[in-house]
Write a structure and sequence with these properties.
By secondary structure, the chain is mainly alpha-helical. About 65% of the residues lie in helices and about 5% in strands. Among the domains are: about 10-195, 3-Layer(aba) Sandwich (Rossmann fold), CATH 3.40.50; about 200-245; about 370-470. A 5-stranded parallel β-sheet has the order 2-3-4-1-5, sandwiched between helices.
Length: about 600
């Protein structure tokens, strides 16, 4: 059965384009056509063919194998037509999760661009396609459906047939790995093949600015794929930094910083590097174990009076900043049964020990005491914050469901990081904000994140709305606004996301200087979500100074490295990765950075 006509004025087969006066539009940031690569070579014929196809008919198909530059070709062709590019919406079908989720995202983008919001259509793909066509036609928009390779032909063809039959003023481009089996599109398909040797050589030399071009054999091994060539060049550029990062991370798996390890073992940095580079990270760990045993032996040889003086001096002193001294204080408080003092200490210093990479050491001294009701939330908090320690997460999973609201919240966090997202979400749904005291906003943000991860946007909105009146401090308002940015951006409501970002910036400015460090990660993550990398750098320099990557919290250093990478400030990334302090105790940072860069995994 043929689909119903879109409108009486546009029914029938395709003929000459109807002149439509374009209305003012504003394409959402995340739905704009991406910038084409600066170096675009060897595709002059394909670009001319695509421009001709776009002028001749309403639907175009760009097909070719993965990595050959189909998306770049579309962006380059549209860049040559600024009026059309400014009215183009581009969304990735695979990233949206399939054809129907893509149509949902497309409708949101079309509504945001045109300022029109008709009722949500009933039914499946066809009614949603017709509705998208209506919106695009009224504003003479172009739509690029990128990465449709995972959508089966029998699912995509009905959509394309509706568009090819009824579109007049709008333009539609589908990027695929293979042609669509539709006779009407035979002349509307542009095929993209591998680049020839001359174009690959030109691209390789263009990418080698400031360095040496790849050897000819490595260029040939890329098989005419611009993407594979760019990845190979990037991997070659980052190789020195990655080699240094591997050595640093091999050492940093031990529970002590490198400098402290040097002082206690007598080894110099080169000798420690040699141990790590030779795959002997466990030998470095043995060295640390020996030094700790030696310290224990020294204390064991001391008299009872000497030990008593040693313990009393540590307990009476100011709270230490050094992680080793802090762990010793926690151990002594636990052995002395001073639960209240230990509770107070962990409230202020637990996160600092996690940031210093001391989860395992902290658990070793805390484990004998976490069955105490006052200390159980700290054990669960440690399990939630460690995220990568299976023994800690298993301990949290083995606990009976805690009764105290704060402990239940921490337990839900641990469940979430152990992969039990639905159970974690359901646990948080049982917690009333009033019972969480100063943690109400943070717990609501956690719940909203879990609701989003499990596909319940309404639940996320309800969680945040329930604590709007509770968020009194600037820190809580900033944390809440940052989550609103994420929620609105995931639903392509960029006007609301921008408004939430404004609220976040106001709250951030009102946050006391000594508290901005703790609130930085929420601020930076929201800014990165909206592509505002410059705001991340400015805030880091203003609040934390130029040494933020050396001395800031683990999450902060990770965020800044990813921001640098997204801006392709590769020289800065390489310099940071080459410094020991930038990567100590945080192996996940290198994974995030190099995965984003597209380099080969370490």
């Amino acid at each position: 059965m043929a689909p119903a006509p879109v409108e009486p004025s546009v029914a029938g087969t395709y003929a000459a384009p109807r002149m439509v006066t374009p209305s003012p539009i504003s394409v959402p940031l995340q739905a704009r056509v991406p910038n084409p690569p600066r170096l675009f070579v060897g595709r002059e014929a394909e670009a001319a063919a695509l421009a001709q196809v776009l002028s001749a008919g309403p639907v175009a198909v760009v097909e070719g194998a993965q990595g050959l530059g189909k998306t770049s070709l579309v962006a380059h062709t549209l860049r040559a037509q600024p009026a059309l590019e400014a009215r183009t919406i581009q969304l990735n079908v695979a990233r949206a999760g399939g054809l129907f989720p893509w149509l949902e995202a497309l409708r949101e983008a079309l509504c945001a661009a045109t300022g029109q919001r008709p009722p949500v259509p009933d039914g499946g793909v066809v009614p949603w396609t017709v509705e998208a066509l209506r919106l695009a036609e009224r504003a003479a928009l172009a739509v690029v459906a990128d990465d449709t390779g995972e959508v089966a032909d029998d699912a995509l063809c009905p959509v394309v047939e509706i568009l090819a039959r009824h579109a007049r003023a709008s333009r539609w481009v589908f990027v695929r790995h293979q042609p669509l089996p539709l006779l009407a599109l035979l002349e509307q398909t542009v095929s993209v093949g591998p680049l020839d040797d001359a174009a690959m050589l030109e691209l390789a030399h263009g990418l080698a600015v400031g360095g040496s071009p790849l050897p000819t054999a490595e260029i040939a091994a890329c098989g005419g794929s611009p993407l594979r060539l760019r990845q190979a060049v990037l991997a070659a550029r980052m190789a020195p930094a990655k080699a240094t990062a591997r050595r640093v991370l091999a050492v940093s798996r031990s529970p002590m910083p490198v400098q402290q390890l040097q002082g206690m073992t007598g080894l110099d940095a080169a000798e420690i590097d040699a141990l790590a580079e030779g795959g002997a990270a466990e030998r470095v760990g043995d060295l640390v174990g020996l030094t700790e045993r030696s310290r224990a032996e020294v204390l064991a040889d001391a008299s009872a009076d000497e030990l008593s003086v040693h313990r009393d001096a540590l307990l009476a002193a100011a709270i230490p900043d050094d992680p080793a001294d802090l762990l010793e204080r926690i151990r002594l408080l636990g052995e002395a049964g001073r639960v209240q003092a230990l509770d107070d200490l962990l409230r202020t210093r637990l996160l600092a020990l996690v940031d210093a990479g001391r989860c395992a050491s902290l658990w070793a001294v805390l484990a004998p005491h976490v069955t105490h009701p006052a200390l159980q939330p700290h054990g669960l908090a440690l399990a939630a914050l460690s995220r990568s320690d299976p023994s800690l997460l298993q301990w949290a999973l083995d606990q009976p469901e805690p009764e105290a609201p704060v402990a239940r919240w921490r337990w839900a966090q641990a469940l979430f990081h152990a992969g039990q997202r639905v159970r974690a979400r359901d646990t948080l749904r049982t917690l009333a904000p009033a019972g969480l005291g100063p943690y109400a906003v943070e717990a609501a943000v956690n719940r909203a994140e879990m609701e989003l991860r499990t596909g319940d946007r309404a639940g996320a909105e309800a969680a945040l709305s329930a604590v709007e009146a509770t968020a009194q401090s600037p820190q809580d308002r900033a944390r809440l606004a940052a989550m609103w940015v994420t929620l609105h951006a995931t639903t392509l409501n960029y006007a609301a996301a921008d408004a939430a970002m404004g609220t976040l910036q106001t709250a951030w400015a009102q946050t006391p200087a000594n508290a901005q460090r703790a609130a930085f990660d929420e601020y930076a993550s929201a800014a990165l979500y909206l592509g505002r990398n410059a705001a991340v750098f400015e805030a880091a320099q203003a609040v934390l100074g130029t040494d933020a990557l050396d001395h800031g919290p683990l999450t902060l250093r990770s965020t800044l490295l990813v921001a640098l990478t997204r801006d392709l400030r590769l020289a800065a990334v390489q310099a940071l990765c080459a410094g020991r302090a930038a990567l100590r105790e945080q192996p996940h940072v290198v994974d995030r950075v190099f995965t984003y860069c597209g380099a080969v995994a370490a």
